[in-house]
């Protein structure tokens, strides 16, 4: 029921004043204007992105590096990022053991210069003074790109799978729900999800854990893969090239990257160094473009 016009009349010329001596004045507003400003934008976006070109699952360092590389190389593509947490960024807000500095081994420092993150050069590696400086800069660059949409507080609960013309199963999108709903399926009767179809899905959901390694585990439970490789012990020199070089289309339609790939392949972990996540995300962007152009 439309609110009475009188309460939604356009306010006169805003008599605003930015004053910090007691007479700060805002432009007047109607509560419904705030609600409608959010509702229209969010649900128009949700409607438009129900069909995307690439869906990236997980906005950690690998997923965000992929989103930036993909969306800048191919501004024609509709890139939609689905992130379960309210706060995107995954594990990249801190370095290791809650310490704040972030170590990135060369040549991944090239990406820092590309997005404009300052660092200290230590020879074979560089140090960003606070991991949040890297993650917040990368997030701001990604969100400023016109062809990228981030849906946070939203979980991928399943994968859309179709049989292609060769009778092979192909991942063709994701099944989504608000994360608070996804976490409460056992407390309420069926709360059905929504869907986003896309010819390419990039899964970067991180280590195994309550929400992590989502696609790696789902591919097994749906019979598209036999078993989880299970990430091996820490070996920085072995793990980072293995993850970057191993980033690939693991089943038709789905590229896996970042620490989720370590769980899928059984490669080593690298601990508190993030160059492998950056390189894996960029490689995933190249893979997605290859698949779309095939
Ligand atoms: O940061 P993560 O966990 O994952 P990556 O692969 O981007 O980066 C991993 C990196 O932070 C490390 O673990 C470092 C290098 N340590 C290595 C080591 O040896 O310990 O980001 C994954 C994101 C998170 O933000 C999750 O909330 C999100 O994915 N996520 C999901 N989002 C939507 N739907 C889901 N089902 C889902 N599952 C996880």
UniProtKB/TrEMBL annotation:
Catalytic reaction equation(s): [ADP-thiazole synthase]-L-cysteine + glycine + NAD(+) = [ADP-thiazole synthase]-dehydroalanine + ADP-5-ethyl-4-methylthiazole-2-carboxylate + nicotinamide + 3 H2O + 2 H(+)
Subcellular location: Cytoplasm; Nucleus
Residues that hold substrate according to the record: 62, 83-84, 91, 156, 192, 207, 259, 269-271
Post-translational modification: During the catalytic reaction, a sulfide is transferred from Cys-190 to a reaction intermediate, generating a dehydroalanine residue.
GO molecular function: cysteine-dependent adenosine diphosphate thiazole synthase activity; iron ion binding
Major enzyme class: transferase
InterPro entries in alphabetical order: FAD/NAD-bd_sf (IPR036188), Sti35 (IPR027495), Thi4_fam (IPR002922)
Single GO biological process annotation from the record: thiamine biosynthetic process
Gene3D superfamilies reported in the protein's UniProt record: 6.10.250.2840, FAD/NAD(P)-binding domain (3.50.50.60)
Function field: Involved in biosynthesis of the thiamine precursor thiazole. Catalyzes the conversion of NAD and glycine to adenosine diphosphate 5-(2-hydroxyethyl)-4-methylthiazole-2-carboxylic acid (ADT), an adenylated thiazole intermediate. The reaction includes an iron-dependent sulfide transfer from a conserved cysteine residue of the protein to a thiazole intermediate. The enzyme can only undergo a single turnover, which suggests it is a suicide enzyme. May have additional roles in adaptation to various stress conditions and in DNA damage tolerance.
Family classification: Belongs to the THI4 family.
Entry protein name: Thiamine thiazole synthase
Species the sequence originates in: Mycena chlorophos
């Amino acid at each position: 029921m439309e609110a009475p016009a009188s309460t939604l009349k356009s306010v006169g010329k805003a008599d605003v004043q930015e004053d910090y001596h007691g007479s700060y004045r805002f432009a007047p507003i109607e509560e419904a204007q705030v609600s409608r400003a959010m509702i229209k934008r969010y649900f128009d976006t949700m409607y438009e992105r129900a069909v995307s070109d690439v869906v990236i699952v997980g906005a950690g360092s690998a997923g965000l590096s992929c989103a930036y590389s993909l969306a800048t190389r191919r501004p024609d593509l509709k890139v939609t990022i689905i992130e379960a947490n309210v706060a995107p960024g995954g594990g990249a807000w801190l370095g290791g053991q809650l310490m704040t500095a972030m170590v990135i081994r060369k040549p991944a420092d090239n990406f820092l210069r590309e997005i404009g993150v300052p660092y200290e050069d230590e020879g074979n590696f560089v140090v960003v003074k606070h991991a949040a400086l890297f993650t917040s800069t990368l997030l701001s660059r990604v969100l400023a790109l016109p062809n990228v949409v981030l849906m946070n507080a939203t979980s991928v609960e399943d994968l859309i799978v179709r049989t292609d013309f060769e009778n092979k199963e192909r991942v063709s999108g994701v099944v989504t729900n608000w994360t608070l709903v996804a976490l409460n399926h056992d407390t309420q009767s069926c709360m059905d999800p929504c869907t986003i179809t896309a010819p390419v899905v990039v899964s970067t959901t991180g280590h195994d854990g309550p929400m992590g390694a989502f696609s790696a585990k789902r591919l097994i439970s749906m019979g598209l893969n036999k078993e989880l490789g299970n990430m091996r012990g820490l070996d920085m020199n072995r793990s980072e090239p293995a993850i970057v070089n191993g980033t690939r289309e693991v089943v038709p339609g789905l590229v896996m990257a970042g620490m989720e790939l370590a769980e899928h392949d059984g490669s080593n972990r690298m601990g508190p160094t993030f160059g492998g996540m950056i390189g894996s995300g960029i490689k995933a962007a190249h893979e997605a473009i290859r698949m779309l152009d095939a």
